[in-house]
Write a structure and sequence with these properties.
588 residues; mainly alpha; 2 strands; globular
Amino acid sequence: MSTLPPLVPAPRRNRDPRSVVAMLRSPLVLVVMVIASWFVVALLVWPNLNMLVATFVQDGHFSWSAVERLSSSPRAMKALGNSFLLAVLLSISTNIVGVFIVLVTRFFAIRGARVLWLGYATTFIYGGIVLAAAYKLIYGSDGVIGRFVAEVIPGLGADWFTGLPAVLFTMTLATTTNHLLFVSAAVSGLDGQMLEAARMMGASTWTVLRRIVLPMMRPVLFATTILSFLTGLGALSAPQVLGGREFQTIAPMILTFSSSTTSRDIAALLAIVLGLATIVLLAVLMRVERKGTYFSVAKVSSRLVKQRIANPVANAVVHVVAWLLWVLYVLPVVLIVLLSFMPPEAAGTGRLDFGAMSLQNYQRVLTQSDALRPFLVSIVYSGLAALVVTAGMILVSWIAGRYRNWLTVALEYLLHIPWILPATMIALGLIMSYDHANPLMGGLVLTGTPIILLLAYVIVKIPFTLRMLKAAFASINGSLEEAASLMGAGKLTILRRILLPAVLPAAAAVTALNFNSLLDDYDTAVFLAHPLYQPLGLVIQSNTTGTVGPEATSNVFVYTVLLMLITGSIMWLVHGRTGARSSEGPAR
């Protein structure tokens, strides 16, 4: 009887994944950890600690002078109140509109649901300062809709679209993207059999919605509420463009105070208030997530079948409201495209002259250096930041997944700092820390140089990139690496020949999304941009002040159309070609 040879156990990928010494024996790991540790200390930890010290320590002693100056400033206190008011109202209005558009595209049987979804999804391809500027140019005193409403309603005034109502209206439509992404996924996970059983037991559509659907979506609705609150609390673009003198919030106030060294401590204190509010709300969200039961993402017994609204009056009302909302979402996009082809004089005054449509504006933007320069600056900044952060986080994600010890865990937690701090606080911390020679930067002064904005872009995209790439590495079949080790391949060979090709699609998608989101950035650039290298967001904002010529206004429309084309193409490359259409579009 033959005997089988003894089994030889496959070598483990790391003999002691908890050993820091064993991890640092690899030259590549050592270099990556040294660079990552320096980055965390110099750009994530020290700027924020330095801002705290500069705010509360004066002449070597603890001082409450910044708090006293802030509390004695009616303008600053009013801005604080306005920010919290906007945050509360936005969390309510966004949920009302967001839940409604999800229900009419996912849950109820509404005619033209796919067309409705495409209209509601227009905010995926433009937002931030671009959306705020476009709404001002369309709804403002010289805009197409602004002049029409002022003529229809006598006594309203040409500047009716300003203040809190204008900011709340614009931000409500702009921030329902979270509902289209997350709440739609929750609705698609509902158990169709359970809803059908409730209907067979005599429950009305309203009862099913109120007693079953909404309670099951409670966790994701709570998450979107927190996100909406934080968005309103730290809003900069919409309040600055549309708020006017009567409605100023924290973020624009931070920008105003930070421009002077004598009031920079008040700006820092306001940024700290934003940061503390963000941390508290995120902590509450994480606590609720740990306690919650997520029925909406459970494995379902049958696919959800769209529910018909039995009451004819209610059905008609829902259809009318759904299509009116669709008009509100789509009309600005249509007008932006049309006005981009109008002569500058017509576009500047909001007049549609279809007989004079031409490519004059596009020719000017794409051929004149002063008009094209901000577009190219934004592309270079966004492209470099997206590539740098992806390359760095690939190595960090690989190390964090391969070696689990106190050093990698601490590094991973610290790299999530930008997720719990607003962009204004990060920017202000960099300004206050590196406006003079600092040993952490080798004695270099960063404030006022082009490099500081690039560093800020890399910082704000680290958490998202790290999470996505770590998930990509975790999804790789471990047997591939084990087989390569058995065949004698080294760590670098395995990383280069097996792991990197496996995560390359995810890395490319993350790079594209990061590039997309940075292309029209304003919140960070307004603090850190170099005067000679102004990104597109700053130019768009300056072209909506009302003191510019008609060509500058036309340029805004052209910039917006070009950004929508780029963003839409990237969204299609990332999602449309991977079958995500079924998960983002309305249920069939």
